[in-house]
Amino acid sequence: MILTLGDFGPLTLLINFIYALLGIALFLALARLVRGPSLPDRVVALDLIAALTVGIICTYAIGTNQQVFLDVAIVLALIAFLGTVAFAQYVERRAHDE
Amino acid sequence: MSEWIMTALMITGGAFLLLAAIGIIRMPDLYSRIQAATKAATLGVGCIILALAIHFVDLGITVRALLVIAFLFLTQPVAAHMIGRAAYFVGVPLWENTIMDELRGRYDASTHALESPGSRIFFEGQDDNNDLGKSKDS
Predict the structure, then answer these.
(1) Can you give the pLDDT at residue B101?
(2) pTM, entire model
(3) Number of folded domains in chain A?
(4) How far apart are CA A19 and CA A15, in angstroms?
(5) Which residue ranges make up each domain of chain B?
(6) Are the beta carbons of A48 and B49 separated by less than 8 Å?
């Protein structure tokens, strides 16, 4: 819907530019997720990917004029925080048990 | 007018998120990666959600957007601190050129208790200068 050629309003241009920035950022975070030497590195990369996804969802909400996507962003931010906290507990407990 | 503010906020947010990703790929060790990713990503997402609140001129959306921003500013530092603390316990190495590690030798690995520098000075009485020298060496 956004990427229709021929519709080059200023808002469409801005939204596509933000998509490009966030896409590059997602790719870099994914590279750290694959490469990261330790488990906490990967957790931090996952956290950043969640933040980037929240940004992409908000950009999509502006681009399509759909207000409901903000609720999706709220839920995703909540779950990402819980996931990071759970991963931190797991990292600590795994070292404790060994 | 509001379109220009929204555009500026969107570009700022996208740029900060991109900077966070560059930081996470370029920084030398885990702890600097954490600080690069957390702060820049929080500011970037906050800017984009603020742009969304300005785009939809709607009280409900604005309230929810401010709620998300407050939630992010509360939880992102907590999450970063928890994962950094866990990584320090596990023994993730610092950057080789790190100048100072003030926590070295102060964590009890079995009880996870932190010995505060104030208590050490208090217990050792008058040897304040000596104590400061020791903490710098250790």
Answers:
(1) 79
(2) 0.82
(3) 1
(4) 6
(5) 2-90, 100-138
(6) no
